[in-house]
Design goal:
Layout lengths: L2 E4 L11 E10 L6 E4 L3 E15 L2 E6 L2 E5 L5 E4 L3 E9 L1 H6 L12 E3 L2 H15 L6 H11 L1
Parallel strand pairs: 1-3
Antiparallel strand pairs: 2-8, 4-5, 4-6, 4-7, 4-8, 6-9
Helix pairs in contact: 2-3
Length: 148
């Protein structure tokens, strides 16, 4: 039986208003034991395989190149019967409020299929995030997040 939990993220670096999990892997045997929800906005980017994301009980297909948007407060769970690899960007609700966006009122389309503009911005954010010595790193990360 799958449980449920509320997740509250702690952002330890005030200059990095997001959490970025790379190469999360799911298989039939290797899956989360709980559905979860949180105030923050989560974007899942599928890099390999396919599966589904349950969004408040609705099954949304998820395959390579897709982005699934988990809007604020939405119960979600990512699974596959085969093999799935994805990156997960969780954007701080406090950061969104700071730049004038209400995470509760703002909603992404739940499934974004093969959107090159998003992928470009996401890969740019990932590269800046990984380059600790990048000049103007914080400003560049903020710009990427805002564009996303």
């Amino acid at each position: 039986m799958i449980g449920t939990r509320y997740e509250e993220y702690v952002y330890t670096d005030e200059n990095c208003p997001f959490v970025l999990h790379l190469n999360l892997e799911r298989t039939r045997e290797r899956r989360s034991s709980e559905r979860n929800w949180h105030e923050d906005i989560e974007l899942q980017f599928c890099t390999q395989g396919s599966g589904i994301v349950l969004l408040d009980g609705r099954q949304v297909p998820f395959q390579r190149g897709d982005v699934i948007a988990v809007n604020s407060g939405l119960m979600h769970y990512t699974q596959t019967d085969a093999h799935l690899v994805y990156d997960c960007l969780i954007i701080s609700a406090a950061f969104l409020r700071k730049i004038g966006i209400s995470p509760e009122a703002f909603e992404f389309e739940e499934r974004i299929c093969c959107d090159e503009a998003f992928v470009d911005r996401f890969l740019a954010l990932k590269a800046i995030y990984e380059d600790i010595a990048a000049p103007f790193r914080t400003a560049a990360m903020y710009a990427c997040l805002t564009e996303i």
